[in-house]
Amino acid sequence: MAGSRSLSERRETKRSHLAERWERLNGPHRIGGVDLARGLAVLGMFAAHLLWIEPLDFADSSTWVDIVNGRSSILFATLAGVSIGIVTGGRTPLTGHRLEVVRLRLVVRAGLLWLIGLLLIWSRVPVYVILPAYAILFLLALPFIVFGARALLLLAGTLAVVMPVIQVALDSLPLWSTPAGSDLSTLLGWHYPFTVWIAFVLAGLGVARAGILRARVQLWMLGAGALLAVIGYGLDAVTGAGDAAEAISYWGAVWTSRAHSSGVLEVIGTGGFALAVIGACLLLCRTVLTWVVLPLRAVGAMPLTAYVAQLVVWAIVATAVLGDAGDLRGFRDLEPFWPLALWTIAACTAWALLVGRGPLEWVVDRLARLMAPGRVGRVER
C-alpha cells in the first residue's frame, strides 16, 4: 500500500511538473505572439547566416528568402523594445522602487549580453554578432522607459528620419579604418549601429506602452507597419539611388533601403516591416493557429539560448570538419541551415515543455535578480 501511494505521488508530481511547464509557455502571463515573432527573428538570422541567398527579385520566387537579410535583425531589435516595455510596466510605466529594481536588472542583463557577445566573436565564427549592439541598446533605452506611448512613437519616428543622415557622416570617420577603430567597431557591434537602431527599440517600447495585448493596437501595428514598409521600399524602387550612387554620393548613401545600410528608406521600410510582423503574430496567436506554431513560440521563448547555441555548434562543426571556424563559404556549402533550424526547433520545444525556461535565459535572469534584489510584482500589459 505504501509503495502504491509512493508511485501515485510520483505520477502526480510528474503531472504537476508538466502542467507547470505548459502554463509557463501557454499561460496568460506569456504573450504568445511576441514569442512567435522572436522565433521567426531567430530563425531568420539563422537563414541569413547559413544560406546562399540571391538578391531579392519578386519575379523569381527562389530569391524570396532574401527577405531575411537585415529584416530579421531589425525585427529582433524592435522586439527588444517590446520586451523592455513589458518588464517595465506594460501600458503603465513602473515608478519608485519597482522601477529602480527593474532598471538595475536591465543594466545587469545588458552587461551579460555584451560579455556573451564578445565570447561568440572570439569563437571566430564569421558573422556580425548582434549581442554587443543589443546590450548597448538596452542601456540607451533606460532613460526612455518612463515615457508614454505617444512620446515614444513620436521620438522613434523622428530618429528614424534624422539619424540615417547623421549615420553616413559617422560611418565616414577615419577612425574606423584604423586598428583601434576596428576593435571599437567590434566592441560596439557597429554593424548594427546603436545611433540608428535605437529608433527600432523605442518603437517597440512605444507599442508595448500602447497596450500590446489590445486588438486595436495589434491591428494598428499591422496596418501602419505595412504602410511604412510600402512607403520605404516603394520610394526606393521609384527613386532609390542604386549601388553606384550609394558608393560615391552622400545622399545616395542616405536614400537607400539596402539591407544593413542604415539608410532612411531601410529604417522606414524595415522598421514598418518589423511592426507589421509583430502585429500579425499577435493577431495569429488569438486564433487556434497558436497551437500550430507552438514550436516556433518555444524558440522565441528562449531566443538567447537558440542564438548562442547556433553559433557554438557552428564553431565546433566547422572546426572539426573544415579545420577553420571562420570558413564561411565552406560551412555554407555543407548546407547546415535545415539541420540546425530543425534541431533548434525540436530542442527548444522539448526543453520548454519538459524543463522550462531556456538555460541561458535562466542564468541571466538569476544573476540579474541576485545583483538587483527586490520585488516587482505583475505588470499591466
UniProtKB/TrEMBL annotation:
Q: Which Pfam families match?
A: DUF418, HGSNAT_cat
Q: Which domain of life is it from?
A: Bacteria
Q: Where is the Heparan-alpha-glucosaminide N-acetyltransferase catalytic domain?
A: 30-214
- Statement: the UniProt record of this protein carries the keyword GTP-binding: no
Q: From the record, give the transmembrane residue ranges.
A: 36-53, 73-94, 106-123, 129-147, 152-170, 190-212, 219-235, 273-294, 306-325, 337-356
- InterPro entries given in the database record: Bact_Transport_Assoc, DUF418, HGSNAT_cat
- Record flagged with keyword Transmembrane: yes
What are the entry keywords? Membrane, Transmembrane, Transmembrane helix
Task: Tell me the ranges covered by the DUF418 domain, including all copies.
Answer: 258-367
The stretch of residues making up the signal peptide is none
Stored PANTHER family: HYPOTHETICAL MEMBRANE SPANNING PROTEIN (PTHR30590:SF3), INNER MEMBRANE PROTEIN (PTHR30590)
Q: What is this protein called?
A: Heparan-alpha-glucosaminide N-acetyltransferase domain-containing protein
Q: Which species is listed as the source?
A: Microbacterium pumilum
